[in-house]
Amino acid sequence: MAHVSDLIATDINAYLKQHETKSLLRFITCGSVDDGKSTLIGRLLYDSKMIFEDQLAALEADSKKMGTQGQNIDFALLVDGLAAEREQGITIDVAYRFFSTDKRKFIVADTPGHEQYTRNMITGASTAGLAVILIDARRGVLTQTRRHSYLVSLIGIKHVILAINKMDLVNFSHEVFDRILGDYTAFASQLDITKIIPIPISALAGDNITERSGNTPWYHGPTLMGHLEDVEVAGASRAAPFRLPVQWVNRPNLDFRGFSGMVSSGTVHPGDLVKVMPSARQSRVARVLIDGDLPYATAGQSITVTLEDEIDCSRGDVICGAEQPCEVSDQFETTIVWMADTPMLPGRSYLMKVGTKTVTASITTLKHKVNVNTLEEMAARQLELNEIGLCNISLDQPVAFDSYTENRDTGGFILIDRLSNDTVAAGLIHFALRRAQNIHWQAVDLSRAARAAQKGQRACVLWFTGLSGAGKSTIANLVERRLFALGRHTTLLDGDNVRHGLNRDLGFTDTDRVENIRRVGEVARLMADSGLIVLVSFISPFRSERQLARDMLPKGEFLEVFIDTPLAEAEKRDVKGLYKKARRGEIKHFTGISSPYEAPEDAELRIDTNTLSAEDAAELIVAQLDARGLLRGAQP
After folding, report:
1. Is 594 a catalytic site residue?
2. Which of 111, 215, 341, 560 is deepest in the core (most CB within 10 A)?
3. Catalytic residue selected from 540, 544, 595, 613
4. Mean pLDDT, the chain cut into blocks of 10 residues (636 residues total)
5. Do the beta carbons of residue 140 and residue 62 sit within 8 Å?
6. CATH number of the domain at 448-627, out of 3.40.50.300, 3.90.470.20, 3.90.190.20, 3.40.1190.10?
């Protein structure tokens, strides 16, 4: 339902045309718990006549049943739709609401105030151009006020309305308003916020929301709705260099090949010279289309372009203005907001989605995390839920990008857990690391296939995983002896042995375990490149890191061998006495006792040591290698 206009009754076509050409402002409301965010949005919907009669009747009934305002309307119930939100009186999920006035259309995101749901606030802020930060006049600037202000600045929102709410509960005191404004501006001066508009309001009573209140004769600024209608926050994206992240190659028939996506910045015309990044191939735009041909397209429009030349361009590439193309790199300095219950571990492999491109990424260095209350930079080895850190990140292939400050679409990214597909972090690219520009892949003449063929075998990695005491090293050693007897060329990497040299600097925390497996995976890959059959015997407790090692190798050359021994049986063997020490608390982070082991779900080989001896297991593994053709040479 749109804002009620006289044109609806007199000239519906004129009304629809007017509505179509209105500008759209996306904004968020944020602040601490109980600062009145949901009530404010409910008031905006009510005052802009965006509520149907049956909705109003239901609101009045719900307000009497579960509202917080006695017999009066509780506007927050218009937005807090989840049962848990109504029961607790807090916002949990992000709620998006549309409303309009004669001047403008709006999409507002009501974001949670509780620290536990900071990740939901980031989601709402990611598409907003303005933030309304609410402060309870009775409580002043709180921890979450500072946290949300920092996040708003971090996300790149430059315009802030400081809505000092519940002024009716402090008798509309000018002194209270000035004190809160002074406290907030002192903190905000450290942030990258261009414009702050302070407004004294009562969301519940409607003071200074749509009409100036007589209760604040000392206030001479705009009303909240008045400022929302008049503020200009767009325009910069249209003046920026042209960027079209390709979402889809449009090929309806043999005679048409177009590239579809939403223009993230700039303007494009037929005849413009463009580059496709990261390949840097150049061409000219032949046509710009939506339903038909357009003379031009600009930021925010979803379009299809055709090029004059048949050049390679696919999903994930970025079509740019040739004179100002985006950059290309595979290593960056970034800021990451961690959004998962499981901590961020440097070295662990994640999927990274930047623009329309999805690649494999790992966080190589956590430089520091940020205390959002004081903006202090603090040393850290990992990031926990809702923490923010400055990190270096490395990708498995170069991507096209811009700095986030220049383009939010091509400079922002998310990290995705490779196994659960959960979004675990949101990030902002600052710049490419110089080291990435100085390092290039050196081509060599001999391939891994040629090296393996010389040895009469195929290169592969046998990855033995299981609990301590399961029998991994024993079985791996027997397998290598049998392969050696068959004239095969092998090497064995054992967890204990590697920790005497390559990984002697690592402990047994989750972070160190991740780095331990990352290093060994890289060594195993290099050895497989030389044509060897590589046997790796490591507990390797986490599926993510075993998947990382698998992804380093060509398909079919990584075999996960799960030495499946129950914890009770492994503990009964306890050749090294480690389980007894772990039970006594003398060894921390011990797998199976104080640190988890994530058993493989689809290992190529599962060895049940309750039914197979070590010798029989070794024979079975060698037979499987032979059946897969890995013990016979192939042409290079």
Report:
1. no
2. 111
3. 540
4. 51 61 83 79 73 56 54 56 40 67 83 64 81 92 86 88 94 96 91 89 89 93 91 71 94 90 93 94 94 90 93 93 92 92 88 93 91 84 89 92 91 91 92 73 79 90 93 94 94 91 87 88 93 94 90 92 91 82 85 88 92 93 92 64
5. no
6. 3.40.50.300
